[in-house]
Amino acid sequence: MTPFPIERGHVLAFARALGEDTDAVPPTFPIAFAQFDPDWPLRMEPGRPWHGSGAEPGAAGQGSGGLHAEQEFEYFRPIRVGETLSARRSDGRTWEKAGSRGVLHFAERHIEFYDEDGKLVARSTTVSVRVEAAS
């Protein structure tokens, strides 16, 4: 499991980026876990090509597994500033759908956040989509 510290400064910066002036944890804050996930595909690393900017044609999605299609958060209790959660990642469903430009491949990814007592605090589900161009 990967530790996810809920730090006041990080929460405040996240809230301000949303246009909020609060130090309460915003409902979408668990997405910030990506900054602590060493396996997050869009995280920059020295000496490794980075495909997260989309600066080059076709670069967006390389290394990220496709486009971000959907995000859902489920809470079992509020997240509190000052605690450190432990995150556990797992793959979910996969499915395909025919599209006008080819086959769309969908994949779910779940992240569950646990408190220091091992109790489930929140769950995040992300759906990504990758297009396989028609030949």
List the helices and strands and how they pair.
Blueprint (H helix, E strand, L loop, with lengths): L1 E4 L2 H10 L49 E9 L8 E16 L2 E13 L5 E14 L2
Antiparallel strand pairs: 1-3, 2-5, 3-4, 4-5
- Report the principal-axis shape: globular
Domain count: the total is 1
Number of strands: 5
| Spatial gap, N to C terminus | 41 Å
Strand order of the largest sheet: 1-3-4-5-2
Secondary-structure element string? EHEEEE
Spatial extent as radius of gyration:
17 Å
CATH C-level class is Alpha Beta
Give the CATH architecture.
Roll
Name given to the CATH homologous superfamily: Hotdog Thioesterase
Helix content: under 10%
Q: How many separate helices?
A: 1
Global mean pLDDT: 86
Instruction: Note the beta-strand portion.
Output: 35-45%
CATH topology value = Thiol Ester Dehydrase, Chain A
Which class best fits the helix and strand makeup?
A: mainly beta
Largest sheet: 5 strands, antiparallel
Unreliable parts: 57-64
Question: Would you kindly provide a written description of the structure presented here, covering whatever features stand out?
Answer:
By secondary structure, this protein is mainly beta. It has a single domain, classed as Hotdog Thioesterase (Thiol Ester Dehydrase, Chain A, Roll). Helices cover 7% and strands 41% of the residues. It contains one helix and five strands; from the N terminus they run βαββββ. It has one helix at residues 8-17, and strands at residues 2-5, 67-75, 84-99, 102-114, 120-133. Strands 1-3-4-5-2 form a five-stranded antiparallel β-sheet, with no helix packed on it. A hairpin with a 5-residue loop joins β4 (102-114) and β5. It is globular. It starts with a strand and ends with a strand. The model is unreliable at 57-64 (pLDDT under 50).
